[in-house]
Amino acid sequence: MVRDQLLNYVAAGLFGLAVLHTFSTKFFLNLAHRSPRHAGLWHLLGEVEVVFGFWALVLVALMGVMLDQHHAIAYLEAQNFTEPLFVFVILVIAATRPVLWLVEDIIARCARVLPFAPTLSLYLLCLTLVPLLGSFITEPAAMTLAALMLKEHFYQKNISSRMKYMTLGVLFVNISIGGVLTPFAAPPVLMVAEKWGWDIAMMSSAFGWKAACAVVLNGLLLTLWFKRELLSLPTANQEKNAVPMPLTVVAIHLLFLAMTVWFAHYPVVFLGLFMFFLGYTEAYQRYQDRLMLREGLLVAFFLAGLVVLGGLQQWWLQPLLAGLNSTVLFFGALSLTAITDNAALTYLGSLVSGLSEPAKYALVAGAVTGGGLTVIANAPNPAGYAILRECFDEGAISPSGLLLAAIIPTMMAAFFFLVF
Question: pTM for this one?
């Protein structure tokens, strides 16, 4: 009993170190430049996606020393790694050229209807329509598609650092709240929807329209804010790859995507489907760009580390959530989401018996509202980070820069969820 309690304290301490480490990655990257002899190690510790996996390794090693090897292995086997595996698979499939081609075609058609210049319309739709599509194709897929489009059309055109961070902040917030129109697309909603009986009708009426308003307003205000810079960018090259994209190829990719979403709770199924998908892409390489396997694995490693470390935080998180009223619970969930995955937060909240309906709403609303504050706040964030980070100075995104950029769109989301 004493050893278990000591292990809880150690796990909480390591979790705190991991959070602190995510805010210190630039220190390790600078250390790599100053110390070439061990540059590889410092670069490794400077990778945000590696942080939680590294500290999870430390936790498991200490668990093996404090208890024994069998307890450490039993703890790992007791954890649910479905979400990291799902995010890995959905990121790779969604980032393929046929899927991106289809989404860009839809965006281009919608852009013609908007009363803005083409560049403004494209930027606005990347920050609004694509995040809202996350309610149907899942948030990780929406994040992947939006990040790839923003990278190609804006981040690679030497936009200002200020615009890079503010765009990233709005993207992360809008993805987090854009998935709440349905009960199956946003991880923090998925964790509680079945247990609390939340269906599509309930989600759209209680959360969906508010989220949609916040998403559109966030995207519109940012588009107007950077209107001059956006209009000064070189015109996007409309020429696509020389190889035409057959609709049958697009349809097959969409089928793999849809089946992965449908079987999202069953890793044995969607991983089997993924093996067939890899075979298909190998057979038709002329319709593919490089698959994002490395980026997907890093994101999965990050989330798996978060699962391992987060599994021993229940002892202090759950009592904390149980002792708050609805309004305080909303802001408490919003704040806690910044230092822990919002899906883990809502899951722990679902274990609290006797939560009132207003408290349930406050917990989920606060969790999704704070999902853009840090890279660890929402499961899809590491995917966006992995795609866009090379466009930032020194190939790293400042955690404080992201936090500051996400504050205003987070306040906008909080306004709609609290006032209406």
Answer: 0.89
